[in-house]
Amino acid sequence: MILLLNGAFGIGKTSVARIVVSRLPRAVLYDPELIGIALQRLARAAGRDIPDFQDLRLWRRLTVAALRVVRLFRRNVVVPMAFSDAGYLQEIRAGIRRFESRQFHVCLVAPIEVVRQRLQNRQVDPADAAWQDRRAAECCAVHQGAAFATQVDADRDVNEIADEILRMVTAA
Question: What residues does each domain of the chain span?
């Protein structure tokens, strides 16, 4: 099974993902941001500025390819990622469907005030903080839409969130 754990920056995706992985048999956390960061660095070295690696078709294709490889070795793959573009999310999901029939997309949602408070608790470069705040606000707004269902309330303890998600995926 592949679980796409979506949500705004700072909402707690990685914290929840770690708990879910620890409770699922033969599970692994896979973070596709690592591919994106590498592609951004390569682009900068070539003199191109890529503000959001999700805009790169290559990133989306490599993400699907990497998930296919990871899925060969692990029964369950949990993917924390902040998708706000419904088209990109659907492209990734369509790619996954080509090799994995058990796929879930869960979107963690919370009021922007909650997310901003969590972001303030992080220690990040001020330039990155402004970008994260902008992206968090964007995500919080769009994640209310139908393209980002099934929504899970993230304004509570991470263990409660993980329990709810585990009930969803094991019941299906």
Answer: 2-171
Tell me how far apart the terminal alpha carbons of the chain are, to the nearest angstrom: 11
CA-CA distance, 24 to 74, in Å (whole number)? 11
Q: Which of 86, 77, 135 is nearest to 107 (CA)?
A: 86
pLDDT in tens, 18-63: 999 999 999 999 999 999 999 999 998 999 988 889 999 999 999 9
Residue with tokens 């879930």, as numbered in its chain = 104
Alpha helix segments (H runs only) across 4-74: 13-23, 33-45, 57-73
CB atoms within 10 A of CB 79: 23
In degrees and rounded to multiples of 5, residue 101 shows phi and psi of -80, -25
Token reading at 15: 């914290």
Residue 71, phi then psi, degrees to nearest 5: -65, -25
| pTM, rounded to two decimals | 0.93
Q: What angle do CA 33, 69, 169 make, to 5 degrees?
A: 75
CA distance 28 to 92: 18
Cβ within 8 Å of residue 67, ≥6 positions away: 2, 30, 32, 77, 79, 95, 96, 100
CATH architecture of the domain formed by 2-171: 3-Layer(aba) Sandwich (3.40)
